[in-house]
Design goal:
four-stranded antiparallel β-sheet, mainly beta, Methylamine Dehydrogenase, Chain H
């Protein structure tokens, strides 16, 4: 889940033994492909959020290990990216944390949990970013809350649910960041699951498996709605070729990660016109954008050497090795950035810290560039 919150402004060293980029590929972005030494986790990392030097991590893990020492961390943890030290921040969730978002000193979490640190929290929680204390932000969710984005004074939530606090909300809802109350005005609705959200000052972009938004069948799997009224923005006319698993946005446009036959990363204009498409040999689960470069993660092992068309299924120019991670320049061209993660499932989440030029990657991998990096890696 990648966004431009209103509250928070959110020389390549190739890893040893990793195949190099194909001849003619654009140069790597200014972020090293060698992952730093970080804490490791004993199960999948699904969520990452940055606040200054602090990196918050959520997932299905129950322990974290740093410097050879293993300590309990039940689905939530934090560490200092500058010093590498694991922090004492340790709220405990009783179910998987799927998404994290930061607003000031608050850390919002969404996922499959019923309690946080013993307090009843149904799929959504607000935590103090310093102490880990559970804030009085408690709501009932009839279904699953899976993705978060913050902006315009609101906390936006997407997933697969029918009601929030007894009020009808079809897979989308918003809350006041100040009061924590459910927004009574923002009520867009989709006919299927929302998997990704991204926010600007005048739009909320959403992606998922839906074919209708607010009853309109003009929005297929990716759409934009007004951040205050929830009205469908009909000037954004993108249609995704397969289920959208993640959405990102920057000043140049909108980006989606998709599954389907193979997987795609797609760049759109703000009117929904396709700028570029890049094809992979497996699902693209997640993407994030920093300084004009789109970083993508998934369970793919190869990427097309050239950009593609929206309907293209093959790679006429052949494939380049990109195992679970890749980077695309502003024209959707494959760069030489090539960290090389292992495992079948691969990378599930990417997040950026633009101020410090850092990228966090989480998933089910245990190695990155041949070095042990269990379920979490930091670049930059």
């Amino acid at each position: 889940m990648r966004h431009l919150p209103a509250f928070v402004a959110l020389t390549c060293a190739l890893a040893l033994g990793v195949p190099s980029a194909a001849s003619g590929d654009p140069a790597a972005p200014g972020v090293t492909s060698r992952a730093k030494s970080t804490p490791s986790f004993n199960s999948t990392v699904w969520a990452i959020a940055f606040r200054g030097d602090i990196v918050y991590v959520g997932g299905s893990f129950t322990t974290a290990t740093v410097g050879g020492r293993t300590v309990p961390r039940k689905k939530l943890a934090a560490y200092n990216a500058r010093t590498g030290s694991l922090l004492s921040w340790a709220p405990a969730a009783n179910g998987t944390v799927r998404s994290l978002a930061v607003a000031g000193s608050a850390v919002y979490a969404a996922g499959d949990f019923d309690t946080i640190s013993g307090l009843r929290r149904d799929s959504l929680a607000r935590l103090d970013g310093v102490t880990g204390k559970v804030a009085p932000f408690a709501h009932s969710v009839s279904g699953e809350a899976a993705t978060l984005a913050i902006g315009n004074g609101r906390v936006y939530v997407g997933g697969h649910f029918s009601k929030i606090d007894g009020a009808v909300r079809r897979n989308l809802a918003a809350f006041s960041h100040t009061t924590g109350r459910l927004d009574g005005t923002w009520r867009p609705a989709t006919d299927d699951r929302v998997k990704g959200l991204a926010v600007t000052r005048d739009r909320v972009y959403l992606g998922g498996g839906f074919h209708k938004v607010n009853g309109s069948n003009s929005a297929v799997r990716v759409a934009a709605v007004h951040p205050a009224s929830g009205a469908l923005i009909k000037g954004f006319k993108a249609k995704a070729p397969a289920t959208v698993l993640d959405v990102a946005v920057d000043g140049a446009g909108v980006y989606t990660a998709t599954g389907g036959p193979g997987g795609r990363a797609v760049g759109y204009t703000t009117s929904g016109k396709v700028r570029w498409t890049h094809l992979f040999d497996g699902d693209v689960h997640t993407l994030t954008v920093m300084n004009g470069v789109t970083y993508v993660g998934g369970h793919f092992d190869r990427a097309c050497k050239t950009t593609s068309t929206i309907v293209q299924l093959g790679c006429p120019a052949g494939y380049a090795s990109r195992v679970k991670l890749a980077a695309l320049d502003g024209g959707g061209r494959l760069t030489s950035w090539n960290p090389h993660a292992n495992g079948k499932v691969g990378v599930q989440v990417l997040a950026t810290n633009s101020a410090r030029r850092q990228i966090g990657a989480g998933g089910a991998f245990t190695r990155m560039g041949g070095a042990g990096r269990e379920r979490f890696a930091l670049f930059g």
